[in-house]
Design goal:
Blueprint lengths: L1 H52 L10 H10 L10 H9 L4 E4 L8 H9 L3 E5 L3 H13 L4 E3 L6 H13 L7 E4 L1 H6 L1 H12 L3 E7 L21 H4 L5 E5 L4 H11 L5 E4 L7 E7 L4 H15 L4 E5 L3 H13 L4 E4 L5 H12 L5 E4 L12 E6 L6 H8 L9 E7 L1 H8 L5 H15 L5 H8 L14 H4 L4 E5 L1 H16 L6 H8 L19 H13 L3 E7 L4 E7 L11 E5 L25
Parallel strand pairs: 1-6, 1-7, 2-4, 2-5, 3-4, 5-6, 8-13, 9-11, 9-12, 10-11, 12-13
Antiparallel strand pairs: 14-17, 15-16
Helix pairs in contact: 2-4, 3-4, 6-8, 15-16, 16-21
Amino acid sequence: MSDDLLKKITKIEEQIKSIQKEQAKLNEKLRILNTERDELKSKYNLEKTKKESEKDWSGNFPWTEKVFEILKNIFKLKEFRSKQLSAINATLSKKDVLLLMPTGGGKSLCYQLPSLVERGTSLVISPLISLIEDQIINLKKLGVSAETINSSTSKESKKNIYQYMAKNQGTVIKLIFVTPEWLAKSKMFMSNLQKCYALGNLNRIVIDEVHCCSQWGHDFRPDYKYLGLLKGMFSDVPILGLTATATMSVILDIQEMLDISGCTVLRAPFFRPNLFYEVLPKPSDAAACLDYLEKLMTTNFKEQSGIIYALSIKDTEELSKGLRERGLKVHYYHANLEPEARSAIHERWLRNKYQAVIATVAFGMGIDKPDVRFVIHHSLPKSLEGFYQESGRAGRDGKPARCIVLYKLSDYFRVSSLVGSKVEENKVKASLEYCLAQNTCRHKQIASHFEDGFETVRCEKMCDHCKNPRKCLEVDVTSVWKDIYTIMENAESNGVNLTLLKLIDAWYSTGAKELRVDTVKKPRMDRITAEYLVANFLQKGLLKEEKNYTAYSVNVYLKINRKSDAMKNRILVTFKEDAIPKGLLPFNKDSEEPPPKRMKT
């Protein structure tokens, strides 16, 4: 009897294994099909978006005369800036629209003006209460009825706003501003918004800083995820999303998240002709860096207003302390300060009581000072999207301004230690690539990153590379890589993890003795050039980063990337012709010498 039971159990187990095997095959097939479907959907939405966005929205419409009357009589403007009229016409045509426009390009007019063309109310979702309050003050000065609801709004004001929304009674409100947090948590507000919609009075939903919706964006905010429900609740109400920065992958993610796939996408040119972009070598120690900043602020930017972005709260406070000790009127600004303190610092800077604010990226949205003459990034930016938006706070008055990155490779590893996803790591590497470029126009680099056509734009010497063009050559650095490879192999065999500093020290035979390699000669170049080469090996995938997490910090080590295909070929790095290190020669494409054999891994 027991043998029969055992046979039955064995038979069932075999059947289970067979089914599990089939199930694994089906799961893999399902995974492949899902991936293929998602890729096709992205391709379809991309084609649909491009087709929809090719339409000319700048022509005449039934409301054209009224639009220009409002522009002249209410907003006191003579003409529209790039893409403003197209965005206004598209949203008045009840199209879902994503508008990409540089900082200071006039995005707010694209929803403020349409709200006055038609009856009803526009809902504006904006991330900062301070920014909302500034806009409402400015709108009321123009005679436009606008209100906001937040935790500090009085009961009487809330009652009046809800009465208008739910019953169309009382003072007409053309624009109602809320934060995404308020929208997500206030059932009362959503209930009255649905009543407003039922009365036919909700004519538009505007989402400012719409890139915050995207997990691929540089400033993802969880509360923005709630906005994905709006299209399902108010299906025939057009959505107008506004941002200064979004790559195509971010645009597609926003479309999917907001359920507006294939919507019209309008792009104003990313080129800011009055901004001079440059990358300068960052002094090696803190005191020298402070001296350098002092020199810039007392000579190049004497009595001019600016922003200095730093990587951490500690950096802002130390830089501020050091510059104040040198007699400069500056103050730090970061998210850990009380709101009242932040407002006071901002206000003093606006009134030029401070020459510069030393800030983290918390000093961002809502900063509208036209005469900012310089924006300096004290460390490598975390992303080109963030850098473009932050540097774009300079020169909003149209006059020349400078946007400087102080670069050194060690900052890259500092930033890298702070990011936790592959997407964020790729963004940091894009910033590194921007800094490593030897002769590419900076404006062109930015436009290329955002997939914005640059062919029709001329830099007119408004970046370091175009102002001082120098001939660049490809240099064969395979022999240098062999030396680095040998040092890395030696460290690995000794069980030592190499940081950038330890690697460079070993190369220069100044580090720990067990890390030095007798067969590797000391390089005939300065350390900045040596770091430039290491950075290129990292960019080309020959080296990779390995992070070690401790209770208090994250250490980033360099490792050989043994899977890299770059090892199969000759390794070429671009140098300015007059900066080629001794012992290295420009690569001759006509040389018949075969590429080196791949090193054993």
